[in-house]
Amino acid sequence: MSTSQSKTGASDWSPDQYLLFRNARNRAIHDLIAFLGPEYSPDRITDLGCGPGNSTEILASRFPHATITGIDSSPAMLTQARTTSLPNTTFAQADLHTYDPGQGVDLLFSNAVFHWLRRRDRIPTLTRLLLTQQLGRGTLAFQVPDNHDEPSHRAMRETAASPPGANEPDLDPIETPLEYYNALKPHCRAVETWTTRYVHVMEDHGAIVEWAKGTGLQPFVNLLPAAEEAGGVDVREAFLEAYRQRLEKEYPRAEDGRVLLTYPRRFVVAFR
After folding, report:
1. Number of structural domains, the chain?
2. Structural domain of residue 151, as residue ranges?
3. Where residue 128 sits, what CATH number does that domain have?
4. Per-residue pLDDT tens over the stretch 169-210
5. Structure confidence by residue, pLDDT tens digits, 116-127
6. Which among 47, 114, 147, 182 could disulfide-bond with 70, CB atoms 3.0 to 4.6 Å apart, if both were Cys?
7. Interatomic CA distance for residues 94 and 197, integer angstroms
8. How far apart are CA 166 and CA 210, in angstroms?
9. 4-35: string of b/e by CB count within 10 Å (b at 16+)?
10. Considering only CA atoms, which of 64, 164, 184 is closest in space to residue 122?
11. Can you list the positions of beta strands (E) in the chain?
């Protein structure tokens, strides 16, 4: 779920906020695991960026006999993950930039984490992790949101470009399928990649704000001073309200008053 905190400006992540939309966020996890097929049976799994443990729980349910290690950089997320009390599972704090899972891992799995790395670090980190697996075996399976140009994320940058934002974090769009293929294929026998555009039904525009507060908005909000640092002025809430107003212009309401949030995700599976 999260990488080095300094890369996003966040002090830590909120498991409760993230899990407000657990079922919707879990859809991509189920889809990525399903692609591996019913006969796929890894003995050792590393869940890279495990967040609050929702992805680890699904992995443990699908592969009950596997030994699983979940890693994340967020202490708060790991505290939540450890409450899952999963058998054959351990959780540890680590930074993807330097983490070494060691040889013998059959499946390196990652749900929505590599997009937090800067573009210059992303493919080198993926390649390094892939090469830790024993030659001739192992799978790297990950998905990342591909929403840099979606209205929800364009509105974040536009809100950050003027007060009360006036700054924005260093976040890069993800690579194309061809870039992932060209980078990973020399090191493995096959690479599969696809994009799924999920459509989430949200109660209103405020619900999109709550969704984004658990992930994409946090680096923006954490660059702003807290109320006690701004003379009692709640700059963060002002930013969120300005963002909500922009969303109202971007997303029309359905006839029942709800709002449809399109959320594309890029999937990549590399087989050693």
Report:
1. 1
2. 5-271
3. 3.40.50.150
4. 888 999 999 999 999 999 999 999 999 999 999 999 999 999
5. 999 999 999 999
6. 47
7. 30
8. 21
9. bbebbbbeebbbebbbebeeebbebbeebbee
10. 184
11. 44-48, 67-72, 89-93, 107-111, 139-145, 190-202, 259-271
